[in-house]
Amino acid sequence: MARGLVKSFGDTRVLGGIDLTVPTGSLLALLGPNGSGKTTTVRILTTLLPPDGGSAVVGGHDVVRDGVAVRRAIGLTAQQATVDDLLTGRENLELFAGLYHLGGRRGRRRARELLERFDLADAANRRVGTYSGGMRRRLDLAASMVSAPPILFLDEPTTGLDPRSRVELWAVIRELLAAGTSILLTTQYLEEADQLADRVAVISRGRVVADDSPEALKRQVGAERLVLRLAPADVPRASALLSAPGGAEHEITLAVQGPDHLRHTLDELHRAGIPVERVELRTPTLDDVFFELTAVAA
Length: 298
Fold this sequence. Notes:
Elements: E1 2-9, E2 12-20, E3 27-31, H1 38-45, E4 53-58, E5 61-62, H2 67-73, E6 74-77, H3 89-99, H4 104-117, H5 133-144, E7 151-155, H6 163-178, E8 182-186, H7 190-196, E9 199-204, E10 207-212, H8 214-221, E11 224-229, H9 235-242, E12 251-256, H10 259-271, E13 278-282, H11 286-297
Parallel strand pairs: 3-8, 3-9, 6-7, 7-8
Antiparallel strand pairs: 1-2, 1-4, 4-5, 9-10, 11-12, 11-13
Helix pairs in contact: 3-4, 5-6, 8-11
């Protein structure tokens, strides 16, 4: 739980009073543009960085006054992998087990359990430098679980992974949740938050601008989205006419308030001589939530 976290670097205010709560056994996804303060928040909550103001309690321990107890209660998978390319997967996990004072036999048993759990047993004796990106990320997550922490921080764990590896890591995260692990996840993949999170907190310019379940946030955005597929040359003119942002190269997207608004929109394009190749109506997504909330906060 964090209340009023403040952090500045020189004259730059990075966090302007962050409030967050992660209920036991749930996953909170922290979304925000680059530079919004996501990683700074994680670094404070994991005792890697002191706050300038506010307070935070993790696992029942204050992150400033009782940092040692906090570190005993948490695991952290940072943006950069912490495993050693020159060691095998097994050697990496046994090294971490030693750092957690698990002892030789107990550490080897824990490494073996995690290699099985994260589907790395067949590669246990290969150097990590030969692993794929997805395998390295699973090993990194396994390393953060060596001490079986009840609380886990995942800072953009799937960045750079291919779609298959990302889905495989999602399955591992779901297993950890089912086992009762509390997780704070930062991500730039909105689909990832939609798939995994019990709650989503959107952070912009160092402040939380929304905090609710994915479905509630989508309802908050409200109206259905109209996606219009146009010839690429017509997109700028249609976007200006309808005051709607361009999406993909051939598309613009706008919120519609019922059938009359839809008919009026299509009539405007017809009168302007802009042909529409395809019309699609869809419910709001977390992408819509993200763009609307961060635009309002900018």
